[in-house]
Amino acid sequence: MVGGGARMTASGNFYHARLSDICEWVKRSWDRIPDEMVIESFKTCRISTSLDGFDDEITDNEDYGD
């Protein structure tokens, strides 16, 4: 569909996108986001997977790249 190969009905309407196409679009979009951007976004939102509480001490004074 992306390269102009959209399927059309006999009356000229577009068919709905196939689930496999949608999944591929989402996968490609996520693959283009740098890992560091995701990591910094989690830090900015104070979302952590640290089980030892290490990240719990983040203060408002830390620079998040703003």
Q: What is the radius of gyration computed over CA atoms, rounded to a whole number of angstroms?
A: 21 Å
Helix fraction bin: 25-40%
Describe the largest sheet: none
Detail the poorly predicted runs: none
Alpha-carbon distance between the two ends: 38 Å
Counting helices, strands and paired strands, the structural category is: mainly alpha
What is the chain-wise order of helices and strands?
HH
Globular, elongated, flat, extended or rod-shaped: what is the shape? Answer: rod-shaped
Mean pLDDT: 80
- How much of the sequence lies in strands comes to under 5%
Say how many strands there are. Answer: 0
Helical element count?
2
Protein name: DDE-1 domain-containing protein
Organism: Rhizophagus clarus
